[in-house]
Amino acid sequence: MANLTITVDDEVLKLARRRALDQRTSVNALLREYLESYSGWREDRNQAVRRFLSRAQQSRASRGDHQWSREDLHERP
C-alpha cells in the first residue's frame, strides 16, 4: 500500500478529525474510502465478486450433482 502526502489547512484537518471521531473512523480511512470510490476500484472488485459467485452457482459442483471423494480432491493432472 502506498503512502500519500497532501496539504490541507490546519483548521480543515482539525474539523475533519473531530467529525471522523464522531463517526468512529479516521481521516485516513475516510480518504481511502473516497479514493477507492472515486477511482472505481471498489466497483471493479464488486463486479468481479458478482461474476465469480454467478459462475460458482452455475457450476455442476454447486448443484450437488457430484459427490467428491478424497481421490477426486487430490487428483493431480
Structure description:
The protein is mainly α. 62% of the residues lie in helices and 0% in strands. The chain has a domain of 49 residues.
Mean pLDDT over all positions = 86
Q: Roughly how many Å apart are the termini? A: 37 Å
Number of helices: 4
Q: What is the tally of beta strands?
A: 0
Determine the strand fraction and express it as a percent band: under 5%
Give the fraction of residues assigned to helices: 55-70%
Order of helices and strands: HHHH
The main β sheet shows up as:
none
Q: What does the overall shape look like? A: elongated
List low-confidence stretches.
none
What is the SS-derived class? mainly alpha
Radius of gyration (CA) equals 22 Å
Question: What's a quick, concise take on this entry?
Answer:
The protein has four helices and no strands.
What is the element layout, followed by pairings?
Blueprint: H1 10-22, H2 27-39, H3 41-58, H4 70-73
Note the main attributes of this structure.
77 residues; single chain; mainly alpha; 4 helices
